[in-house]
Amino acid sequence: MRSKKNLFLFFFIWFSSLAYSQKADEYFNFGQDKFKAKEYKAAIVYYTKAIEANNKHALAFYYRGLSKANIEEFEHATEDLTQALTIDPKLEGAYYVRGLSELAMQDDEKAMEDFSATIKLAPSLAGAYFYRALCKGNLLDTKSAIDDYTETIRMEPKNMEAYYNRAYQFAVLQNYRAAIADYSKVLDSSPGQVSAYLNRSLCKAKLNDTTGASSDLKRALELNKNGVSAYYNNVALNLNAGQKNVGSIDKLESTMEQVHAIALEGIIKFSTKK
């Protein structure tokens, strides 16, 4: 039988733990208020206090990591998110945000693993497929990247960024018709997107559709002459062809076929940015 002394000691320990837990939740809630207000540095202060009161508070580690990611402290964010997952391995949001942080640090392999873990726990999260596709593309796993972009589009049919990025991956596989179809989808939604016209023009040129390629280039020029000139100057520099400038806007069209033909051999990587 327990002595009264031991019973009182047990009650004191239990009550103290409860008090610390309540204090941790109180700090955590203050942190949530700051987080919702996008005051991430202030939120971090409160989440830290919550963790000091209860070092098993998985959500405090998660939100502190998320807050750090929001202020681009990615390495510290991954440390907190890892700790959150040590406490609660089924916290899918922690895998996802850690994956985003790793992707920001250009650690594509680790990021891909975390997005795969996210998909296992939350298979309906389209963003996990999208960002895993980015990782796969960076790692030159082109066919698998296309599969993930396709799944993203299935879940989010209006995700034009997924169409745009999938178009590039199709072009890498020399499936120019599929790439053109995706760029066309993007342009149906955003008819002012210069880079989509330029990239579609490159694909058409590869299929010897000079008229179509020229038409897309002209439209890009109408939308942004300076931007197109800079784009082709950059192409020329990357070609190492001994010329530092393609020339005037008037000469762009005459150089288009040569530039297109070489660019699509994989020397020039299409931009995946809008």
Secondary-structure map with pairings?
Layout: H1 4-36, H2 40-53, H3 58-70, H4 74-87, H5 92-104, H6 108-121, H7 126-138, H8 142-155, H9 160-172, H10 176-189, H11 194-206, H12 210-223, H13 225-239, H14 249-267
Q: Architecture of the domain at 158-274 in CATH?
A: Alpha Horseshoe
Report the CATH topology name of the domain at 158-274.
Serine Threonine Protein Phosphatase 5, Tetratricopeptide repeat
Percent of residues in helices = over 70%
**Which whole number gives the mean pLDDT?**
82
- Compressed to H and E, one letter per element, the order equals HHHHHHHHHHHHHH
Query: Which oligomeric form is depicted?
Result: single chain
Distance between the termini: 73 Å
Residue windows where pLDDT falls under 50 for at least 5 positions: 7-20, 239-257, 260-274
Compute the number of strand runs.
0
CATH class of the domain at 158-274: Mainly Alpha
Please summarize the sheet with the most strands.
none
Write out key terms for the chains shown.
274 residues, Serine Threonine Protein Phosphatase 5, Tetratricopeptide repeat, 14 helices, 0% strand
